[in-house]
Amino acid sequence: RTVEPLEYYRRFLKENCRPDGRELGEFRTTTVNIGKCLCSITTADGSALVKLGNTTVICGVKAELAAPAVDSANKGYIVPNVELPSLCAERFRSGPPGEEAQAASQFIADVIENSQMIVKEDLCIANGKLAWVLYCDIICLDYDGNLLDASVFALLAALKNVQLPLVTINEETGLSEVNLKQKNPLVIRKHPVATSFAIFDDTLLIVDPTAEEEDLATGTVTIVTDEEGRLCSVHKPGGSPLTGAKLQDCITRAITRHKEVKKLIDKVIKSITPK
């Protein structure tokens, strides 16, 4: 494994399994924890922690009030940011965001936009005057591959946990008034779920790659679908090309994975909802 890691992996892949005992199309154990039980970010308006095997990602959503942009007077803002601190893996360094963190942040921004999970018009309070800004901070606590799947899942779970207070504008003073006693859940219009694959030797696809598998792979691809089976995004940063048939296989598996994740998130939300 240390001297010839690729040959070591190939021996397993020939038998349609992986060194950790999983089949090629099998995900690692997935868990999600939603809400204020996450003592580290109790100041957030919505929070979630997702574990995908050893990969652990936390997402906190903070809502603030701001004036809409002049050219988008009826829209609010969503600002995602992915952090890969040095504590999550040896490969990351302290300091400004590296290339991988920036690429992940852009990917999350694209997923939000393409899936229309939140329509920015829903975040507007008073046209041209006041709107919500949602700061979505996604921090990796432990990195063992497949950051994108865990990040999208954590973002969705945290957004479903957000409760926004009622805000009105006093017509006499022109100032905003916040009613913290009357809160409403954020309107989530679509539920995007990401499914990532590593490509081995240009032909073989394995789902939910670990960090080691990502390093040995000849490419990766991430498929994002919503609950209607609609394709929201295909993210393929170079590497081995995929045939149309292989890509279709990935999409089919992603649709199945979506159902699994949606079922898990609904179950957790039901368990924390007051009777």
TrEMBL record:
Pfam families, A to Z: RNase_PH (PF01138), RNase_PH_C (PF03725)
One GO location term (cellular component): cytoplasmic exosome (RNase complex)
Keyword rRNA processing: yes
Main location: cytoplasm
GO BP, sorted A to Z: exonucleolytic trimming to generate mature 3'-end of 5.8S rRNA from tricistronic rRNA transcript (SSU-rRNA, 5.8S rRNA, LSU-rRNA); nuclear mRNA surveillance; nuclear polyadenylation-dependent rRNA catabolic process; rRNA catabolic process; TRAMP-dependent tRNA surveillance pathway; U1 snRNA 3'-end processing; U4 snRNA 3'-end processing; U5 snRNA 3'-end processing
GO molecular function: mRNA 3'-UTR AU-rich region binding
CDD domains for this protein: RNase_PH_RRP43 (cd11369)
Tagged with keyword Cytoplasm: yes
Coiled-coil region(s): none
Family according to the record: Belongs to the RNase PH family.
Protein name per UniProt: Exosome complex component RRP43
Lineage: Eukaryota, Metazoa, Chordata, Craniata, Vertebrata
